Design the sequence.
C-alpha cells in the first residue's frame, strides 16, 4: 500500500518510473547542477531495463534522493497526484528479491514502474 | 452394477515446443489476439511482460520458458486465465502465451493417468494428469504458479 499523496514521474530511455515525491530531496536541471555538486553525488543514468548506460545528451534533469547522496538522470519529470493514477501491486510471479519495482501503474498508453527512494537507491548501489 | 463416470469440460492449451496442458473450463476467461504487451524490468525471464485487460495490469507467463527454458515464439495468442489463492479473496487474472488458439475438450475420470517420467517438469505445477489422443496432459495448478509461496522459492534465482 502506498500512502504518498504525490508522485514524481521520471522518464528516461522510454521507461516511466514513479517515485513518492516525499523520497526526493530535489529536482534540478542538469545545467544548473554545478560540477562541484555532481562530483559529490553518485549519479546514475539508466536505460529502460534499469541498467546503467553511458550518459545521454537527453538527460535534462537530475533527481537527488533523500536517503543517500545518490541521484538519477532523466529526460522528463512530472508531478502526479496519487488519485490521478491507478497503482496496482506487482504480481507475485513477477517479483524478484533484488528488484526495486514494487508496483505498476497505467500511465497514458504505457506502463509505469513504481518504486520508492530506499528500494531504488539500494538497487542502484548494488549495480 | 453400473459405473458412474464424471465428465468435465476443460480447455486444452498448447504452449509450443511440444508442451500441452489443460485448465478447467471455468478457469479460462478470454483469448486475446495480439494484444499490446509491455516489458517490465527486473522481473523473471519467464514472466517479464504484462498486458492491460479491463483496466487491470496482468502478468504474462511464458510456460515454455518456465518449464524448459525455451521462449515462446510470439505474443500473438494470449489466454486470460483466472485463479483464486483463497476462497475468501477476489479472483485474480493472468495471461499465458499460447502457440495456437485453445480448444475445449471433454475429460472423463477414466482418462486419468500418471504423469510420465519424461514430463516430470510439470510435477510442481500440475494437479493431476489425463490421457488424450495418446498423450499425457497435465492439469495446471494455476493458484500455485502465481502464489507468493512458490515464487519466493527457487525460481527467484532466474
Sequence:
Amino acid at each position: 500500500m502506498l500512502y504518498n499523496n504525490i508522485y514524481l514521474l521520471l522518464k528516461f530511455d522510454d521507461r516511466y518510473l514513479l517515485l513518492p515525491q516525499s523520497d526526493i530531496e530535489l529536482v534540478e536541471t542538469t545545467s544548473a547542477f554545478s560540477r562541484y555538486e555532481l562530483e559529490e553525488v553518485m549519479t546514475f543514468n539508466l536505460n529502460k531495463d534499469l541498467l546503467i548506460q553511458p550518459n545521454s545528451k537527453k538527460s535534462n534533469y537530475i533527481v537527488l534522493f533523500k536517503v543517500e547522496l545518490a541521484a538519477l538522470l532523466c529526460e522528463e519529470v512530472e508531478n502526479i497526484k496519487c488519485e490521478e493514477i491507478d497503482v496496482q501491486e506487482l504480481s507475485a510471479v513477477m517479483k524478484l528479491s533484488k528488484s526495486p519495482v514494487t508496483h505498476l501503474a497505467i500511465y497514458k498508453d504505457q506502463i509505469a514502474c513504481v518504486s520508492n527512494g530506499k528500494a531504488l537507491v539500494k538497487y542502484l548501489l548494488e549495480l | 452394477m453400473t459405473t458412474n463416470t464424471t465428465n468435465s469440460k476443460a480447455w486444452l492449451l498448447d504452449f509450443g515446443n511440444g508442451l500441452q496442458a489443460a485448465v478447467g473450463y471455468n478457469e479460462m476467461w478470454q483469448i486475446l489476439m495480439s494484444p499490446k504487451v509491455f516489458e517490465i524490468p527486473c522481473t523473471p525471464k519467464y514472466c517479464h511482460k504484462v498486458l492491460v485487460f479491463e483496466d487491470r495490469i496482468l502478468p504474462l507467463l511464458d510456460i515454455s520458458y518456465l518449464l524448459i527454458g525455451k521462449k515462446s515464439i510470439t505474443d500473438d495468442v494470449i489466454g486470460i486465465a483466472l485463479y483464486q489463492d483463497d476462497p475468501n479473496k477476489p479472483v485474480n487474472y493472468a495471461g499465458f502465451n499460447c502457440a495456437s488458439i485453445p480448444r475445449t475438450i471433454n475429460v472423463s475420470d477414466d482418462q486419468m493417468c500418471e504423469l510420465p517420467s519424461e514430463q516430470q517438469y510439470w510435477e510442481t505445477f500440475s494437479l493431476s494428469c489425463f490421457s488424450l489422443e495418446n498423450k499425457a496432459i497435465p492439469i495446471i495448478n494455476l493458484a500455485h504458479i502465481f502464489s507468493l509461496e512458490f515464487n519466493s522459492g527457487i525460481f527467484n534465482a532466474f
Q: What stands out?
A: Residues 15 and 98 of chain B are 5 Å apart (CA to CA). Chain B is about 10% helix and 45% strand. The first strand of chain B starts at residue 7 and ends at 16. The two ends of chain B are 54 Å apart (CA to CA).
